From TrEMBL:
Xref: InterPro entries: Rcpt_L-dom (IPR000494), Rcpt_L-dom_sf (IPR036941), SPS2_domain (IPR053079)
Keyword Signal recorded: yes
Protein name: Receptor L-domain domain-containing protein
Signal peptide residue numbers: 1-21
Protein's gene: Cnig_chr_IV.g12136
Keyword Signal part of the UniProt annotation: yes
Domain Receptor L-domain: from-to ranges: 51-149, 221-311
Pfam families from the UniProt entry: Recep_L_domain (PF01030)
Keyword annotations from UniProtKB, A to Z: Signal
Length: 353
């Protein structure tokens, strides 16, 4: 009986895991929906499978002679794209011709480049405007050097994730348009809990209007703070007791706190840019360095935390060291070192002289 249950369970797991592959499989069985020409132009457009809702192939739209209207006509039925997509060096102002696209799924059978989802060097591009896109499954996501880009405008994006466990998504949104910002919803899709994204987002975060639980300075009742949080002697802890997510650096310097229980609701720190996510310096009365609910730290750098000049007791707290390292490790596996340069192992087993 036990064995039978096990068998059924295994069967279900196998079947469920196939759902992910389902889209990529449909490609092999429906060759009329493949686009083999790769580069999209007036000439190759004649072979574009424009009646298919799922299209398979590596699509490259580069310095194309097709205008936005012609592209809209070609793509009006497309819901799912399996393969790759590159839009490079065009004069397009947005990608709304792809507004019907719901899912993008990378497939290595098509194309030659490892950059599966790439939108670069489009000097007139103001926004992507993929209004119905909910899911991106790709090894890489690369959006860069679009000088005038102001926003992504991916309002329905729920998840951008890896196809396999062992891979990273590189979300690289480098642009010198000072106006550019990424929304909290888009950022959440890129940093989903199970996602092992290697983040590289060179951008500010859009400040939402009329969101009472979002703030830019510490405020009582605020749950998501966009900006750095500096905590020094005399800080009014009531302002952060309800804080759940911090989008910036947490800097606790020269305080008299004995523990961090006042940050008991904080579950996550997301630090964009090449900056330390967590700074704890000169807290002489600290008994430990535990953050009760902090389970994830998204940082772009290896040394995500810096601990120095605190009490001896807190610096010997290897348990919290492991917990913090685990919180950061969920993403990549790059972060071996902790705080003041010592690893958690070195704190647990100090080298004997
Ligand atoms: C986006 O999806 C909505 C509903 O899901 C649909 O009404 C709309 O036509 C879609 N947009 C495009 C451009 O296909
Ligand atoms: C962006 O930077 C490039 C290179 O530094 C420069 O040539 C270009 O004018 C800049 N664009 C804008 C919109 O500032
Ligand atoms: C993950 O991929 C890298 C390079 O592709 C490889 O070196 C490494 O062994 C892989 N790790 C696992 C656990 O499969
Ligand atoms: C936090 O402290 C740093 C260093 O003193 C300072 O540059 C920054 O402006 C402060 N940020 C806030 C939000 O107070
Ligand atoms: C942290 O705060 C202290 C005191 O406000 C400041 O001197 C220091 O520069 C800050 N560090 C960072 C990385 O913001
Ligand atoms: C967490 O937030 C809730 C609701 O805002 C509050 O009642 C509770 O005291 C907070 N916990 C801590 C440790 O501050």
């Amino acid at each position: 009986m036990n064995l039978l249950l096990k068998f059924i369970f295994l069967f279900l797991i196998t079947e469920l895991s196939k759902i992910d592959c389902w889209e990529t499989r449909s490609c092999g069985t429906n060759p009329s929906c493949e686009f083999k020409q790769t580069f999209l132009s007036q000439i190759t457009a004649q072979k574009f499978p424009k009646h298919c809702s799922t299209i398979c192939g590596f699509l490259i739209i580069q310095k194309t002679d097709l205008n936005a209207e012609e592209l809209t006509g070609l793509f009006k039925n497309i819901r799912i794209l399996v393969g790759g997509l590159q839009i490079v060096g065009t004069k397009l102002e947005n990608l709304k011709f792809l507004a019907g696209l719901r899912r993008f799924v990378q497939d290595n059978r098509y194309g030659f480049s490892s950059e599966r989802f790439k939108i670069t060097y489009n000097p007139e591009l103001r926004e992507l405007g993929l209004l119905n896109l909910t899911t991106i499954k790709s090894r890489s996501l690369y959006i860069a050097n679009n000088e005038k880009l102001e926003k992504l405008n991916l309002p329905k994006l729920e998840v951008a994730k890896c196809l396999r466990n062992n891979c990273t998504i590189r979300v690289s949104i480098k642009t010198n348009a000072s106006k550019f910002c990424i929304t909290l919803k888009e950022l959440n899709a890129f940093t989903k809990k199970r996602n092992k994204c290697d983040l590289n987002i060179d951008s500010g975060i859009c400040i939402p209007e009329n969101e009472p639980r979002v703030c830019t300075v510490p405020t009582e009742g605020c749950e998501r703070l966009i900006g750095d949080l500096n905590i020094t002697k005399g800080f009014d802890v009531r302002k952060v007791e309800s804080l759940k997510r911090l989008y910036g650096t947490l800097n606790i310097t020269n305080t008299d706190f004995t523990d961090f229980r006042f940050l008991g609701n904080l579950t996550r720190i997301v630090r964009l840019g090449y900056k330390t996510a967590l700074v704890v310096v000169g807290n002489k009365l600290l008994r430990n360095m535990e953050f009760p609910k902090l389970r994830r730290i998204d940082s772009e750098i290896r040394r995500f935390a810096h601990f120095a000049d605190n009490s001896e007791a807190s610096h010997a707290d290897f348990k919290s060291c492991y917990a913090l390292r685990k919180a950061a490790l969920q993403k990549g596996g790059l972060w071996q070192q902790f705080g003041d340069g010592r690893s958690c192992e070195q704190i647990e087993f100090p080298p004997t002289r």
